[in-house]
Design a protein that fits this description.
The chain is mostly helical. 0% of the residues are buried.
Length: 69
C-alpha cells in the first residue's frame, strides 16, 4: 500500500506542476470527441486491461522493481 501522506504530497506537487510549467492539457475529451489526443495514452477501462498493461510494463516489472533481500 502507498503511504497516504506521500500520496497527497505527490498529488499536490503534480497539481502545482501544470500551471507552473504552463502545460497545455489540450482540448477536453468526452463523449463528443472524435479521437483521443495523441499526446497521452488513454486509461484502461477495466481491471483486466489494467493488469495486462501492468504486466507488460518494463518499469514496474523490470529488474529495478524486484525487492532486495
Amino acid at each position: 500500500m502507498a503511504d497516504p501522506y506521500l500520496f497527497q504530497a505527490v498529488l499536490i506537487a503534480l497539481i502545482e506542476d501544470g500551471p507552473a510549467n504552463r502545460t497545455d492539457p489540450g482540448p477536453p475529451e468526452g463523449a463528443g470527441s472524435p479521437a483521443p489526443a495523441d499526446r497521452f495514452t488513454t486509461l484502461p477501462r477495466t481491471l483486466t486491461e489494467a493488469l495486462d498493461l501492468f504486466a507488460r510494463d518494463q518499469v514496474s516489472t523490470g529488474p529495478c522493481s524486484r525487492s532486495r533481500p
